[in-house]
Design goal:
157 residues, mainly alpha, 7 helices
Length: 157
């Protein structure tokens, strides 16, 4: 895989699996080789610590070590709960009980099973990016094709 980072920058970058703690949700920005990410912020460190605290507390009650707990649906709920507690907003609709009650998490998962999920991502492109074969990918999207709501014949940007 090609990288836009220099050899020095590549040595500074660790993959998501090694860059931060083994949590269900990364607790710091990681790179896929397109840019050099910033170091983990203090608030991200607080989220990581709180996730680990919740994992230890709830995992012990369920008879699981931290690692096993974090691989469960309750572990995922604990990660969202940690963010909710640290950031102080209810962006993630999760309750404390979901991080400790597997039956509650199962019921919630079943209630959301038919939910539509759109997985989208963006990419950083420098001003001097010269790979026209990639920048022109939008030209392959045509009216009535994969994007039926698009009505213009102009290339997508």
């Amino acid at each position: 895989m090609a990288s836009w980072l220099s050899e020095r920058e590549q040595r500074l970058v660790a993959g998501a699996e090694t860059a931060s703690a083994d949590t269900p949700i990364p607790t710091q920005i990681v790179s896929n080789g397109e840019y050099l990410p910033p170091p983990q912020s203090e608030i991200q460190k607080r989220v990581e610590r709180r996730t680990m605290e919740l994992a230890d507390e709830n995992g012990k009650r369920l008879g699981l070590d931290r690692r096993k707990f974090l691989r469960t649906s309750c572990g995922m709920a604990a990660a969202f709960l940690a963010m909710k507690q640290v950031y102080g907003v209810n962006v993630f609709q999760v309750e404390e009980a979901e991080a400790s009650e597997p039956e509650l998490m199962l019921a919630r998962a079943q209630s959301l099973a038919g939910q539509f999920i759109l997985d989208d991502q963006t990419h950083f492109v420098r001003d001097d990016f010269a790979h026209k074969e990639l920048l022109g990918l939008g030209e392959f999207v045509r009216p009535g094709g994969c994007c039926p709501t698009r009505t213009s014949s102009r290339p997508a940007t």
